[in-house]
Amino acid sequence: MTAEQPTGKQTGHDHERAGTPKRRAPVVSTKGPVLSLVINTWRVSLLFIFWHFVSALVWLRNHIRLPAWLGGDGREVGVRLWTIAWLAFVWVLLWGTVSWANVIGGVVLAIAVLTLLPLPRVPVEGRIHPLSVAQLLFRLVFDFFKSSLQIGWMAIRPGRPPLGAVVRVRVAIKSDMVLTLAVDYLNLVPGTMVLEIDHRRRMLYVHVFDVRSEKKVRAFYDQVAYVERMFIKAFERDSEWHPSPYHGIDEDFHHVRPIQPVDGAQSADIPTTTPPASHSDRGEK
């Protein structure tokens, strides 16, 4: 028998045995010179447009002043633009047809309303934290269904009717806008209704549907404390909140005088210039 003679062709396995590196096929571009020129021109054009667009924005910011009614800072401008967009959206809904004429007419009408019939300036303070707002909305939906079931059971269960009362509670929310949102939260949840707001003392007078036991009263105070804590966390954290230039404009306009303490009054009823340390004041009911 004769030994096999080695041939010039070797497989990839033989190359790995021999330790010789396997050559890779050269990368050949499938793009022709014309297509490559078009792609490079498109990229340069995008950079050129973006650069001049940013330069134009900077020039407009330095040379053009916004109208006084639109606001003095970015947050007020954002609120005004949102108001214009909302009024235009309502105008389109009233017409019932989405068209350029209705959209442009709604924007023009919204600008006319804000210019000719200006509303009092609303202080915009603090920052919005989306995660805390989402948590607050989730808790609102949960409290809504839970309170609805409780009130429904109260309506059909046998026995004496529930005992309602007006409960006074103090909150440490500083901004009027955030305080309004917190009051709306309490009004949306069945079983509680804010009847009066003491603006100076940050005191709420809330009608509670059922206060027959100390447990139910404590549950109401816990709910208000949670709402207060979450609204502060979502909108006006102490590290980010700063008073607006228009904060307190109502008191200056209406010449509201500070409340003088009455002889024999409790210290809890005397208003202070700083918010209380505790989240809620468990007052009388």
From TrEMBL:
The lineage of its organism: Bacteria, Bacillati, Actinomycetota, Actinomycetes, Mycobacteriales. Residues 1-10 have a biased composition (Polar residues). This is Multicomponent Na+:H+ antiporter subunit E. It comes from the Bacteria. InterPro entries: Cation_antiport_E (IPR002758). GO terms for molecular function: monoatomic cation transmembrane transporter activity. Residues 1-26, 262-285 are annotated as: Disordered. Belongs to the CPA3 antiporters (TC 2.A.63) subunit E family. Keywords: Cell membrane, Membrane, Transmembrane, Transmembrane helix. The chain crosses the membrane at residues 42-60, 81-98, 104-124. It comes from Gordonia westfalica. GO terms for cellular component: plasma membrane. Coiled coil: none annotated. It is found in: Cell membrane. It is a multi-pass membrane protein. NCBIfam families: PRK08965.1-5.
